[in-house]
């Protein structure tokens, strides 16, 4: 049985802390400013770590990458809209906005590559595709969120804030990549702690706002259970779509594994900071709830699936 993700436990602890001791009064502007600062640092470091040569080297397998992009940025949002149309009365509008936001996010990098490797898939293609998904997502996710949520009862922030807080730090990191990229990759463990610390700060700030606004009175236990069911339904449909679709398109077994794992993931690392930029502070807590639940569900399910792929590999002992 897969173990609980330690980082998820830290996230749950942060949510509990914000529930018991939310920031208020003079602490609010401090934590808001700190959240903006750590988001900028996080996207700067993401840009600095991405090696453009590695991205270009893996870009030749364009059919596979295009398939994953279509699943991530077309099929997922359409699925979210369909489920929302069918189950609108089952959850609060803010939770459905969170589900739609989840569906607009790019794929993960680390876990997509790790599960592809365990399952004996096409790892170089997974590296390229997951990285490309994150780069494209920085640009396309705010556009998708604006198009979908503006039309279906949501609300976004000023586009200038997206440029200043997400795009400019990322571009600055890419500009500095030739100078600090090697250092950033050598200190991956240290920078990973920085990234995760950034997310915890943003989650604490977001949930503090939400708790003060009455989050847990708005989201009863039954709604959390329904949200988990919706997240599981999204993952199950996408896993089935990627597996059957890759076979129909004629991909081999290794490429199918890559499409399944890269196409079904959604990033928590970039998703929480993006939500903090794209949505009003008071609603961020509810917006990221579907993403936090989906994150753990995808880790459990994909860990089991990767081991089954590995056991069924032709050269498995």
UniProtKB/TrEMBL annotation:
Presence of keyword ATP-binding: no
One GO term describing the cellular component: plasma membrane
Segments traversing the membrane: 33-50, 62-83, 95-115, 127-150, 162-184, 196-216, 222-244, 274-294
Domain of life (superkingdom): Bacteria
Alphabetic keyword roster: Membrane, Transmembrane, Transmembrane helix
Keyword Membrane part of the UniProt annotation: yes
Pfam families xref list: SBF_like (PF13593)
Protein name in the entry: Bile acid:sodium symporter
Organism placement in taxonomy: Bacteria, Pseudomonadati, Pseudomonadota, Alphaproteobacteria, Acetobacterales
């Amino acid at each position: 049985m897969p173990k609980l993700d330690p980082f998820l436990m830290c996230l749950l602890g942060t949510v509990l802390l914000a529930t018991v001791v939310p920031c208020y009064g003079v602490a609010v502007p401090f934590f808001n400013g700190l959240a903006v600062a750590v988001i900028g640092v996080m996207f700067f470091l993401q840009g600095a770590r991405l090696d453009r040569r590695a991205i270009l080297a893996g870009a030749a397998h364009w059919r596979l990458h295009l398939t994953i992009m279509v699943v991530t940025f077309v099929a997922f949002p359409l699925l979210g809209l369909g489920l929302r149309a069918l189950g609108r009365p089952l959850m609060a509008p803010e939770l459905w906005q969170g589900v739609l936001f989840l569906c607009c996010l790019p794929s993960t990098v680390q876990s997509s590559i790790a599960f592809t490797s365990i399952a004996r898939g096409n790892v170089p293609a997974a590296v390229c595709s997951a990285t490309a998904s994150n780069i494209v997502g920085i640009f396309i996710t705010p556009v998708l969120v604006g198009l979908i949520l503006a039309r279906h009862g949501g609300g976004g922030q000023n586009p200038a804030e997206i440029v200043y807080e997400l795009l400019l730090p990322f571009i600055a990191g890419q500009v500095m990549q030739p100078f600090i990229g090697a250092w950033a990759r050598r200190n991956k463990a240290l920078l990973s702690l920085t990234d995760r610390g950034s997310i915890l700060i943003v989650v604490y700030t977001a949930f503090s706002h939400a708790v003060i606004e009455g989050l847990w009175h708005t989201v009863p236990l039954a709604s959390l259970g329904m949200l988990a069911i919706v997240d599981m339904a999204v993952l199950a449909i996408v896993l089935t779509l990627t597996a059957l679709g890759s076979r129909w398109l004629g991909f081999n077994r290794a490429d199918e594994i890559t499409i399944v794992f890269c196409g079904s993931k959604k990033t928590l690392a970039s998703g929480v900071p993006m939500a903090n930029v794209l949505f009003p502070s008071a609603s961020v807590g509810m917006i990221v709830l579907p993403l936090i639940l989906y994150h753990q569900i995808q880790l459990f399910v994909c860990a089991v699936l990767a081991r089954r792929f590995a056991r069924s590999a032709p050269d498995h002992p």
